[in-house]
Design goal:
The protein is mainly α. The protein is built from 18 helices and no strands.
């Protein structure tokens, strides 16, 4: 397949996915986002919900309020506010939604192009998976996805200063790209490039501070609300902790457990990396470690929102190498699609719809989703270890080469 043809296929698939996403959300766009209708038709969106709820429709600065500021990091809040300024109507929910989804569609195309530059053979899998296009217009997470991919793209090209700059921007848009730093740190440490690691972290932190300090200094309580909500929240929708609570299983102190288990997961991932570091190129290892780290992060977290699939899927595409992984990918994505259906029907039932899912069935779909993610993660690990075994055998050579040739005796 030629390069131009593979890019054309990726862009056509992205266009199809954009139409499918619009079709999925268009019912609520036409009907006015009423409850439980938004859950029954699976078209709830923060874009419409927060336009009035966070007073974006009055052009209020998103971090002005102590108790009603937006529950997003700074750059996402600025996007919410700036697009609101373009809509001169306090009741302009539909034009506000339309403007934002138009920008999101542009960003998904940009994200797909970057992904194609890094992994063209698997790129179409990102936009066309049902859970991805089904979650595309839930909120503004695609901005963070694009910046994270830019950071990975420049890391791949060994332009580490630019990579670090965009990493800081990505973290200022959504927190999850920050956990990708773990894989980058492992690579620099393995290369004994400690100075490069320190410089990378310094630029990342500096770019984050440049974006965040002006807002924090002027509206500290509003700025800090995002962090406070995440620190103080109890087990929430989609998480393993929420499923355990629904099933009346003991959970313990969730804040302590999430930290301890995530640290254990990081140690296990570091051990895995040490086993495969010499058998594959750095970027392949980074892609796998980044996916595993984010997968552990969202699995252990106190909440799992449907749009988290936008975080995971590009990293999965970058980490994939063969047909076996493609099959496992669709098993995982099938579990995500099932969960995507389940959470909305559970919320429909919760908000008074005549039909919906019970707590027990919803909890079961959470475990199915986690099992699907674990299965795909295990497939990636097995492929990496298999490559290590092959590289080890190749390095050792064929023992028969050292035997005398009997035909010349």
């Amino acid at each position: 397949m030629t390069i131009n043809k593979s890019l054309r296929i990726a862009l056509i698939v992205t266009l199809i996915a954009s139409f499918l996403a619009f079709g999925k959300f268009n019912h609520c766009r036409s009907a006015g986002w009423g409850s439980p209708d938004v859950y029954i038709h699976m078209c709830y969106s923060d874009i419409s919900a927060l336009y009035g709820a966070r007073e974006i429709n009055t052009d209020q600065w998103p971090y002005a309020s102590t108790d009603n500021s937006v529950e997003y990091p700074v750059l996402t809040g600025i996007v919410m506010w700036a697009t609101g300024l373009a809509i001169d109507d306090p009741e302009g929910y539909k034009p506000y939604f339309d403007l934002n989804i138009a920008l999101i569609i542009l960003l998904i195309f940009a994200s797909v192009f970057l992904l194609w530059r890094l992994k063209p053979e698997f790129t179409p899998l990102f936009p066309i998976t049902p859970a991805v296009f089904g979650s595309l217009f839930i909120n503004w997470d695609i901005y963070a996805v694009l910046f994270a991919l830019l950071s990975l793209y420049f890391f791949h090209d060994k332009k580490f200063d630019l990579s670090a700059l965009f990493m800081g921007i990505a973290i200022s848009t959504k927190f999850y790209p920050g956990v990708i730093l773990f894989g980058m740190a492992l690579i620099f440490w393995n290369q004994k490039a400690i100075g490069t690691l320190i410089r990378y972290l310094a630029i990342t932190v500096a770019s984050w501070l440049v974006i965040n300090i002006p807002v924090a200094m002027n509206n500290y309580d509003g700025w800090f609300r995002f962090f406070k909500l995440n620190i103080d929240r109890d087990s929430d929708l989609g998480s393993i902790w929420y499923a355990m609570a629904l099933l009346k299983l003991p959970g313990g102190n969730i804040n302590n457990l999430t930290i301890i288990i995530f640290l254990i997961a990081l140690a296990a991932i570091a051990l895995f990396y040490s086993m495969v570091a010499q058998s594959r190129d750095d970027f392949s290892n980074l892609a796998t470690v980044a996916f595993l780290t984010v997968a552990a992060f969202v699995t252990i977290s106190k909440v799992y929102s449907p749009q988290y699939i936008l975080w995971l899927t590009p990293l999965a595409v970058l980490a994939m190498t063969g047909k076996e992984e493609r099959a496992a990918f669709w098993v995982w994505q099938g579990s995500e699609a099932l969960y995507h259906f389940a959470i909305w029907q559970y919320l429909a039932s919760y908000t008074g719809a005549k039909f919906g899912l019970t707590e027990t069935v919803y909890a079961a779909t959470i475990f199915i989703r986690i099992a699907g993610l674990a299965f795909f993660s295990q497939t990636l690990i097995r492929s990496a270890l298999s490559a290590r075994s092959t590289a080890t055998r190749d390095a050792q050579g064929n023992p028969l080469e050292f035997l005398p040739d009997s035909t010349h005796g």
